[in-house]
Amino acid sequence: MAMATPLLPLLLLLLTLATVSADKFTVGDSKGWNPGVNYTVWEKKNRPFHVGDWLVFYYQEGMADVVEVDEVAYNKCDASNPITNYSKGRSFAFELNHSQMYYFICSYGYCYQGMKLAIKAEPLTPPSSPLSQKTSSAPSIVPRSAAAVTLASAAAALTALLRLV
């Protein structure tokens, strides 16, 4: 077991790289999920969104809700066949689980005044090969695509290293 001790820094590095990076976005920033906010401008300012990111909707209890709908319902402000509907409390957190378009509206009538949001969740790109990266003596910032490394691959690498010991 004494030989496994030098592997500890490598294990910590692998676990650090394996942490999946997800961003949390407060929809509407400080204005929240409320009438009078231009969510098209907000979306453009914050894109790109990726699978694993979270959208957090803050709204006034009893005054708004968050309804996920399809594109047709989004364009018509029609909440009659929701994919999901959340109206309890004062906030709702939604994870972008798939690479696709997501559509959200408020069913309290504010959708007609622009209280709706269309988001495209893009897949995380796999990290580029170390051989394809330019060499530089300057420290580099790990790109967001490095988040695609999973805990499973880190565990597999650790297992392989431990077999060498």
TrEMBL record:
All residue ranges annotated as the Phytocyanin domain in the record: 23-123
GO CC aspect terms: plasma membrane
Homology family: Belongs to the early nodulin-like (ENODL) family.
Lineage per the UniProt record: Eukaryota, Viridiplantae, Streptophyta, Embryophyta, Tracheophyta
InterPro entries xref list: Cupredoxin, Phytocyanin-like, Phytocyanin_dom
Task of the protein: May act as a carbohydrate transporter.
Keywords: Disulfide bond, Glycoprotein, Signal
PROSITE patterns to which the protein is assigned, alphabetical: PHYTOCYANIN
Organism expressing this protein natively: Elaeis guineensis var. tenera (Oil palm)
Pfam families: Cu_bind_like
Signal sequence segment: 1-22
GO molecular function: electron transfer activity
Name of this protein: Lamin-like protein
